[in-house]
Amino acid sequence: MEAAFKEAGLALQACPYLFAVAKIADPSGIDWSVPWTFVSSTPGELSIVCQEKALPASARPVSYGWKMIRVIGKMPFDAVGVMASLSGALAREGIPLLAFSSYDTDFLFVKSVHCSRALEALEKGGCRVRR
After folding, report:
1. DSSP SS3 for 52
2. Half-sphere exposure of residue 115: CA atoms within 13 angstroms, side-chain side
3. Which of 7, 15, 45, 92 lies at a 20 to 30 A Cα distance from 28?
4. Closest by Cα among 101, 64, 63, 103 to 84
5. Over the stretch 39-93, which tens digit does the pLDDT of each residue have?
6. What's the predicted TM-score (pTM) here?
7. d(CA 73, CA 90)
8. Bridge partners, residue 48, by sequence
């Protein structure tokens, strides 16, 4: 991880919920009352990442069994290399990920079977991880 991030001890939080990643046909089925719902819209698809329990009925295809790791706190827009450092730590351990950013911060999604190894890799890279 970049020296500045090691010094700052970038803090991460592992989320206890299981998530699903899917394409959806109908956005009216999204339950916005369930936290940690991410939606993306492109000319060719409408996708959702949400807690498995909140998956809309129109979701097809679906990939289940994802865990979320979020950067704690707000990330300034001029921060450089945060996602590269985080994804690099996972890449060195051969752990695939799905990355998502919001206005305030960044999120990593890893399959639950890789979650423990991912957290260890991120700690090894200099992050402080809350489990």
Report:
1. helix
2. 21
3. 15
4. 101
5. 999 999 999 999 999 999 999 999 999 999 999 999 888 888 999 999 999 999 9
6. 0.90
7. 21
8. 22, 39
Higher-pLDDT residue of 110 and 5 is 110
pLDDT at 2: 47
93 in Cβ contact with 123 (< 8 Å): no
Tokens at residue 108, please? 């990593």
Which single residue is written with the structure tokens 């069994």? 65
Residue 19 CA to chain centroid, in angstroms? 10
**Inter-CA distances, 73 with 92, 110, 115, Å:** 25, 20, 21
CA distance 52 to 67: 10
- Look at the alpha carbons of 88, 85, 6, 108 in this order and tell me if their dihedral is positive or negative: negative
Give the C-alpha separation, 83 to 64, whole Å: 23
